[in-house]
Amino acid sequence: MSLLVQKFGGTSVADAEKVRAAARRALRAQQQGHQVVMVVSAMGKNTDALVELAGQVCDNPPAREMDVLLSTGEQVTMSVMAMAIHDLGGKAVSLTGGQMGIRTDSSHTKARIQSITTERMRKLLDDGNIIIAAGFQGVDEDLNITTLGRGGSDTSAVALAAVLGAEMCEIYTDVDGVFTTDPRQVADARKMANVSHDEMLELASLGAGVMHSRSIEFGKKFNVPIHVRNSGVFTDDPGTIIGPIAESENRAVSGCALTKEEARITVSGVPDKPGVTLTIFEKLAAENVAVDMIMQTAGQDGRADISFTVLESDLQRSLAAVEVAANDVGAEGVAHAANASKVSVVGLGMATQSGVADRMFRTLAEAEINIEAITTSEIKVSCLVSREQGLAALRAVHDEFELGQPPNNRVTFADSLAAARKAKEADAVAVVSRLQAMEDLTIHGVALDDSQAIVTLTDVPDSPGIAADIFEAVAAEGIVVDMIVQGVGADGKTNLSFTVPQTAVSKSAEAVGAIVEALGGKVASNPSIAILSVTGVGIRSHTGVGLRMFRALSQAGINVELVSTSEVKVNVVVLDDKGKAGLQALQAAFTDVVE
Ligand code: ADP
Ligand code: ASP
Ligand code: MG
Q1: Which ligand lies nearest the alpha carbon of 181?
Q2: What is the count of structural domains for the chain?
Q3: Who's near 332: CB < 8 A, 6+ residues apart?
Q4: Residues 434 and 448 in one domain
Q5: What is the rounded CA–CA span in Å between residue 465 and residue 392?
C-alpha cells in the first residue's frame, strides 16, 4: 500500500481551526487509499515562546534541558492533532521521537539522526491508524530527549519518508512552494515547478528558510520525492517538487538567497606554511562553530591573510577561539567586522556557463553596493555586503537574472514528479542497506584537477565596481573562471585570487593587467597549481570535512593556498608538484567513499 508523509509547519497548525483543516487533509489522503504519517511542528510561534521563557529563568540554559523544553511544543500539536482526527471519525496515534525510535547522537539542540525503527509504526499503520509524529525530536542512546535544530521538523519528515519508503513527502507550509527567492522579501519572486536537490541544498544553507537544509541531504541520499505546497484550505494546487532535476538546465541562475546576520573574521599575517589553516579551524570546530566563505589570499613575505565568515550569533565564541589559534601560529593580528549580509545566486547551469559572476558583480556595482568578500563554487556565487544593503542587493540580482520570468524549455511539474518517482524506484533496494547511520556524512569522491592555474591580484582598492571590471575583462576573452576568492587586505585594499585553465593563464593576467595596475595593484600568476576536491552530501553541515582535509594535507607537509566550499564540495588549491601526494593523502583520509 502506498504511504504518504505529510508535514505541517508552525503556521499551518497555528490554531484549532488550522489543526482541524490539517486533520481533514490527512483523512482525505487515507480515504484515497494511502497510509498516512503526519509530522507536526509546534503551533505558531510556540518554539520561540519557549526559547524566550528559558531566557527569562536562566542566562545560559543547559542544552539538555533546552531540548526537554522545546520538544514539548511539538507534543502539544501531536496530541491535539490526534484528537481532531478522532473527532472527525478517524483513527490516530501520536508518537514522540523516542516512541518512534528516532535515535540521534547526543549533541543537544543540533542532534543528528542515526537510525529509526519502523516496526511499531508499520503495525499502527496496518491497523488503520494515521500516525502523528512529533517533528524535530529524537532520543540519544541514554534516552535523553534531543532536538534537531530550529526548523528541524522538515528533516524528521524526510527521514521518516526515507525509512518508510514513502511514495511522497509533502511539506505543507504558508507559501505556495519554493520560490526563486523569499516571496516575502522580493515581490516578484516566482514559484518554481521544481528544483534540484543540489540547488535546494545550496539555497537552504544560504538563507532560503523554507526548508531545513539537512532535510534535503536525506532527500538526495535516499531519493525521497519531496513536494513543498501550501496548507491553505482552499488550495490544492501543485507546489514545487524537490527532486533529481532542475527546472531548466538552460538557465545559469535559478534562485537567490540572503543570509542576514553574518560577521567576518580576518587573521592577518599568518605564516604561509602547512598546518596553519588546520590549527585555526580546529579551534573553531571544537567550539562547534560552522565556518563559511573561507578566503585565504596570498600575502607578502611568506605570510597570508585568512578570512572567513560566521553567523553573528557565533562571533564572540569564534573570536575567543581564533585569538588563541592566532597566538599559537604566530599570526600578526585578528580583526573582525559584524553587520554584514551574504547574498548568493545558485544554479546548476552555472557549472557549464560563464559570465554569471561578473554579471552579479556589475549589478551590485550599479546599485552602488560594495562587495566585501567573494566566494564561488560550481553552482553558486556568494558576495558579502553591508547589512543595510543586503535586501537591495538581493532584489537587484533577482531582477538582473530575470528570475521573476519563467525559463525557456522548462521541465513541467508532472515531468519532475515522474523523474523523482523513477529515481526512488530505481534506488529502493540500495536504500535499505544505507539506512544505518542515516545522517552520517556521505563522501562520493576525492579528485585531483591539475589543469588549472591561479591569478592573484594584490593591493586592489576595495570599492564598488572593481570586481565587475576585472571579471568582465576576463569574460571578454572568453575565459571560464572556476574559483574566485576575494578577501580583505590592509588599509582599505583587497586581494583577489581566481583560477582559470592553464592554457588561459597568460591571457587572463594580460586581460586584467592594465586595470589592476591603473588602480595601483599588482598581478601575479602561477600556472602550476593543482585543485584537490572532496565531494559528497552534507559537506558543509558536517564541519569536519574541511578539517579532515586540512589535517591530511598538513600531515603530508602540503600547504593550502586557497579554499572554497559548497554544500557538495570542498576545493583546495595546492602547488602542482604536491597534487599527486595531496590526492594520496586525501584518499587515505577519506576511506569511506560511497559510490
Ligand atoms: P514552516 O513553519 O511551515 O516550516 P517556515 O517559516 O519554516 O515555515 O518556511 C516558510 C517561509 O520560508 C515562507 O513564509 C517564506 O517567507 C520563507 N522563504 C525563504 N526563502 C524562500 C523561498 N526561496 N521560497 C519560499 N519561501 C521562502
Ligand atoms: N518547532 C521547531 C522550530 O520552530 C521545529 C520546526 O518547526 O521545524 O524551529
Ligand atoms: Mg520550517
Answers
A1: 1
A2: 2
A3: 268, 269, 270, 303
A4: no
A5: 16
Cα(349)–Cα(431) distance, integer angstroms: 28
45 Cα nearest atom in ligand 2: 4
Please name which of 148, 208, 174, 215 lies closest in space to residue 8, comparing C-alpha atoms: 174
Cβ–ligand 2 contact at 41 (below 6 Å) = yes
Q: Facing residues of 235 across strands?
A: none
Query: Can you tell me the distance from the alpha carbon of 240 to that of 229, in angstroms, rounded to the nearest whole number?
Result: 7
User: H or E element: which one contains 146?
Assistant: strand 145-147
pLDDT tens by residue, the chain, 595 residues: 799 999 999 999 999 999 999 999 999 999 999 999 999 999 999 999 999 999 999 999 999 999 999 999 999 999 999 999 999 999 999 999 999 999 999 999 989 999 999 999 999 999 999 999 999 999 999 999 999 999 999 999 999 999 999 999 999 999 999 999 999 999 999 999 999 999 999 999 899 999 999 999 999 989 999 999 999 877 788 999 999 998 888 889 999 999 989 999 989 888 877 888 888 888 888 887 878 778 776 656 778 888 888 999 899 999 999 999 999 999 999 999 899 999 999 998 887 777 889 999 999 999 999 998 888 888 899 999 999 999 999 999 999 999 999 998 889 999 999 999 999 888 766 665 566 667 777 888 899 999 999 998 888 888 888 888 999 999 888 888 888 888 766 677 888 889 999 999 999 999 999 999 999 999 999 888 999 999 888 777 776 788 888 889 989 999 888 888 777 888 889 988 999 999 999 999 988 776 5
User: What DSSP string runs through 422-482?
Assistant: HHHHHHHHHHHHT-TTTTS-EEEEEEEE-SEEEEEEEEEE--TTHHHHHHHHHHHTTPPP-
Give, for 579, the enclosing helix (H) or strand (E).
Answer: helix 579-589
Residue 171 CA, ligand 3 centroid: distance in Å: 9
Domain carrying residue 474: 256-405+443-589
Using CA atoms, how far apart are residues 370 and 462, in angstroms rounded to an integer? 8
Strands (E), 452-588: 452-461, 484-488, 493-501, 522-526, 529-537, 562-565, 569-575
Residues 447 and 548 in one domain: yes
Same domain, 344 and 416: no
**47 Cβ below 6 A of ligand 2:** yes
User: Other C-beta atoms within 10 Å of 491: how many?
Assistant: 7
294/241 same-domain check = no
Which CATH number does the domain housing residue 456 bear?
3.30.2130.10
Q: Is residue 594 part of a domain?
A: no
Instruction: State the number of CA atoms in the 13 A half-sphere of 49 facing the CB.
Output: 9
64 burial level (CB within 10 Å; 0-12, 13-18, 19+): middle
Name the pairing type of β-strands 333-346 and 255-271: antiparallel
* Pocket flag, ligand 2, residue 97 (CB < 6 Å): no
Query: Are 485 and 542 part of one and the same domain?
Result: yes
Alpha-carbon span 341 to 355, nearest angstrom: 23
Instruction: Give the Å distance between the CA of 567 and the centre of ligand 1.
Output: 20
Q: Is the minimum distance from the CB of 249 to ligand 1 under 6 angstroms?
A: no
Cα(405) to centroid(ligand 1), Å: 20
Same domain flag for 343 and 395: yes
Residue 212 lies in a domain: yes
Any domain includes 595? no
